[in-house]
TrEMBL record:
Domain Carbohydrate kinase PfkB: 1-292
Keywords: ATP-binding, Kinase, Nucleotide-binding, Transferase
Similarity comment: Belongs to the carbohydrate kinase PfkB family.
Name by which UniProt lists this protein: Fructokinase
GO MF terms held by the record: ATP binding; kinase activity
Length: 310
């Protein structure tokens, strides 16, 4: 399996609940990198964190999960970014960010797949670096993108949409939530949104819809992929866990070349999305962005199969 490069923010989530406040490692791209590494992928993260208390928390978290950092990702002069997450009554989280995003261009040669998303992909000036990396990658590289829109940080739709579509034109795989799709394209339903990004060039486009499952498009074909039912602790990291599971399955089981060339089958793409849904189910069943290891996903699948046996 080719090594994966993830580019984007790593920050500390300060989770505020009725029981108090707790600090957790977070940031959508960092979560994806951790999720991939825990599943068994070889992953390098290009980010920017400091050596302050929050930076040490992130460095330790990444090291424990087996994620490598590119040179320059740790900067003693940088104050590590943070986000305050307030848990709502339905388990979802509302975020308030304190973030600066500026990064030197990491080397992209030698990686079989590159992923970015959220603030790291879209906030200037670092967002321009990410777009340039996508454009510099070779034609055989799988490029994946998750907009994971944060309007409070990124600004108005009219500013964000061109940056999203610039990355989308270079992406092989795009995963966005129904909330992302509604914010970016208020006049389109999920099927129309997947068709839009397929026209921009993506091989696989998925719109996730929480507990309602997800809609997948491969070329002109679409399929509905059900969510995996579980008891929800909170939804922090659910989309990132889905993205990590999707990328892991595509790069290890389906293969980078079939995905990039468009020769992967709809059944293979559905299998990848089903695995991704199982990863997300493990994550939402426990507090914070605690992404699963491969044996935990396998255990959930086994339990689900047994519960469905007559």
């Amino acid at each position: 399996m080719s090594e994966l490069l993830v580019i984007g923010e790593a920050l500390v989530d300060v989770v505020s609940t009725a029981d108090g406040r707790e600090a957790h490692a977070g940031g959508s791209p960092m979560n994806v990198a951790v999720g991939l590494a825990r599943l068994g992928a070889s992953v390098t993260l290009a980010t920017r964190i400091g050596t302050d208390e929050n930076g040490r928390l992130l460095s330790d978290h990444l090291a424990r999960s087996g994620v490598e950092l590119t040179r320059g990702s740790v900067d003693p002069a940088f104050r590590t970014s943070s986000a305050t997450a307030t848990i709502q009554s339905d388990g979802s989280a509302r975020y308030d960010f304190d973030i600066t995003w500026d990064i030197a261009a990491p080397p992209v040669a030698g990686f079989g797949a590159i992923h970015s998303g959220s603030i790291g992909a879209l906030l200037s000036p670092g967002g321009e670096v990410v777009a340039a990396c996508f454009e510099a990658a070779g034609p055989g590289v799988l490029r994946s993108f998750d907009p994971n829109i944060r309007p409070s940080v990124l600004g108005p739709r009219e500013t964000v949409l061109p940056a999203v579509e610039r990355l989308a034109r270079r992406s092989t795989v795009i995963k966005l939530s129904d909330e992302d799709a509604a914010w970016l394209h208020p006049g389109l339903d999920a099927a129309e949104a997947t068709a839009h990004y397929a026209r921009l060039g993506a091989t696989i486009v998925i719109v996730t819809q929480g507990a309602s499952g997800s809609l997948l498009r491969l070329g002109a074909e679409t399929a509905f992929v059900p969510a995996v039912t579980t008891e929800v602790a909170d939804t922090i990291g659910a989309g990132d866990s889905y993205m990590a599971g999707l990328l892991y399955f595509l790069t290890t089981t389906v293969g980078i070349d079939p995905v990039v060339s468009g020769s992967a089958s709809l059944a293979e793409a559905v299998d990848a999305a089903s695995f991704a849904a199982a990863c997300a189910a493990v994550t939402v069943s426990r507090p914070g962005a605690d992404l699963p290891r491969l044996d935990e996903v396998a255990s959930l699948s086994t339990l689900r199969s047994e519960s469905e046996t007559p």
